[in-house]
Design a protein that fits this description.
mainly alpha; 3 helices
């Protein structure tokens, strides 16, 4: 996936908020001349533009739910502790 398609995809409300906050940090740091703030603001803005922001957005960590019959309980054998 190229950079242009990453920039165009995945725009949600949270991505708008993350890009806005990163841009705000970057703008205020540039205005005040703080080099460390410019680096942090640039990183936040770049990461928010190029990532989806959630780890399971593409379904990569999906775990299927095991379907069992809840009306039919399993046979459970109990052993009394200390009764040897």
């Amino acid at each position: 996936m190229n950079i242009v398609s990453k920039l165009k995809s995945g725009w949600t409300v949270l991505k708008f908020i993350r890009v806005g906050l990163g841009s705000l940090i970057l703008y205020s740091s540039v205005e005040s001349g703080q080099a460390s703030g410019i680096i942090v603001g640039g990183l936040f803005t770049i990461f928010s533009l190029l990532t989806d922001g959630v780890c399971c957005a593409g379904g990569g960590c999906y775990t299927p739910i095991k379907k069992t019959n809840p009306s039919k309980p399993e046979n459970i054998d109990y052993e009394e502790l200390g009764a040897k």
